[in-house]
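Summary: Need help interpreting a holo structure output

Steps to reproduce:
1. Submit the protein chain below together with the SMILES for zinc ion.
2. Request a joint structure prediction with the ligand placed.
3. Inspect the structure token block that comes back.

Expected: a single structure record containing both the chain and the bound molecule.
Actual: see attached output.

Input attached:
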Amino acid sequence: MKNLLNFSLTASEIKNLSQTLISKSRAVYDQVSALSSDRATFKNAIIPIAKIEAEYSVASANIYFPQYVSPIKEVRDASVEANKALEEFSIETDMRADIYKVVLAVAEKNEELGPEDKRLLEKMLLDYKRNGLGLNEKKQELLKEIKKKLSNLAIQFSSNMNEDNTTVIFTEEELEGVPADYLKSLNKRVIDQKEYFVLTMKYPDVFAVLKNAVNEETRRRMDYSYSTKCKANLPILEEAVRLRRDAAQVLGYEDHATFRLETRMAKTPENVFKFLEDLKNKLTPLGEKELERLRQLKKEHLESLGKQFNGSIEAFDFHFYHKMLMEKDYQINEEEIKEYFSLESVTQGMLDIYQKVLNLKFTEIENKNVWHQDVRTFNVIDATSDEVIGQFYLDLFPRDGKYTHAACFGLQPGYIDVDTNERCYPVAAMVANFSKPMEGKPSLLKHNEVVTYFHELGHVMHQICSKTKHARFHGTKVERDFVEAPSQMLENWCWEPTILHKLSEHYQRKGEKLPSETIERMVKAKNLNAGLLNLRQLFFGFYDMKLHTAKESLGATKLWDELKENITLIPNPHNTWPVASFGHIMGGYDAGYYGYLWSQVFSADMFFSKFKNNVMSVENGLQYRKLILGPGGSRDGDNMLRDFLGRDPTVDPFLKSIGYNK
Ligand SMILES: [Zn+2]
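--- attached output ---
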């Protein structure tokens, strides 16, 4: 097996490598561009591009990955810098009119091609068109101008959010209910000899109040401060929506959503609206029932304080009463549960499950070529044929300068080398930040960390099990609204009582499993207020889609107010503009927010129809590997899904999974 990754590059080597990589790639494109239209064929034009793309993909991992994981600051900095050069180069390449001309000439020849080659050619052509290369010069200029403005607006929007320093102050009395430990961590201010706690608009502060503060007025003030910050973002959003519409129309699309969805599994705005509408109709009765329960709880609570209840649940009530209900009905104690999930037992159990279900064999190997001594390396082979499939790394503990979230990095794609006809094997890394074991105490995972672990290793499996001809389609390079579905499906194992039993073992009391009564409560608690919570997700999805299909401005806050109450069943407080802090809408999720629910619905369909009754089914696991993970992006998501399910996908399993009964 060839692993071409090199993690011992110095800062200057990274810089040099990026320069040689860029000039080498550019030379290939130059060569292709020199082909006259009548001489250009798939073999002499497209294959060289596919080949350099694959090579580039591996080499660029050596350049960009160190910024996330290298223990050496100098190397991380060099990686950031070198990556900028790569990004600039990739924009340059995407905008090459000379290459577009050659690709177009090849396409017009209509050569007889295999399905993946055909798709490669189509996708290349489509990318160029979507970048405006099919337009006349004047329109191209216009498009460039709009894109530049849009990129500036996005920077401005997020900088306004980052720079925001809104604070709100409360007395200790007003903060009744907020844990004392938390109060200790806050800054204080004295005004007229009275002491106040200063709270920022960062999530931990906001939720500490919204979840815990008994005083309704305190929660209302916190919510109001949060929902009225970043006012300067309102005109920015309006402008961006207008420019996105303009850009789409210059390219010949009806609106921005139509443009965005062209390359997604959903394909058209109509499909997305139909999906959202259908879910809304089914979730609304469930949400209403849940809301009634919250009202009842609020009434009891207020009466116990000797106060009147006016009959409504407000935006600032939800988290507080949700938490109260969680404690009252389910008594979930995260700290206690954690003691049953040592990293060691979870890792062992999880690797076991993935090996069995996907019919793989993992072997941990001694490996000196890693970026840090904590990193573990595993070889993967097919359990039946012993065929080598790939390799993955686990880098699980925090350290200075390391990437702070959990993610999968597909470092080396799998593909077939056109010169040797040999398969190159994929290599992927899972990077996370679980607490490090200490003297006498192992690393313990909260249940949501166990879920994250399954999820990210799921992406790794997608990388490892994918078997495409071209690197461009490898692994997770699927339609964006499909990329989470395979991993989300694997999360379901973390909610199965038999699996939780298998994964758990008390870290001190060897052999003691998580009590089944606790497991039962955990599984039930998962669906607490699932109707309302999903309606909230639906609201964001609707809002985003309406905004980006409108023929003219709908007014960003006006639309928000209208849809919020109608869909979430909880009104938006008067004279607030939470949309000014809705980062997703400017941060790449435009006409894409629906994707969260979309992939969840399909992941539930896969799990419930194929695994729910037999979570360790090797037969279905193999089908999953072959039909969902294997093709990567070389097929459309909806076709893969239909083949795997043997029918059209439906929302029913998802609804069932969140406790909805018709
Ligand atoms: Zn993911």
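--- end attachment ---

Reviewer comment: The chain has 26 helices and ten strands. Residues 166-222 form one domain.
Status: needs-info
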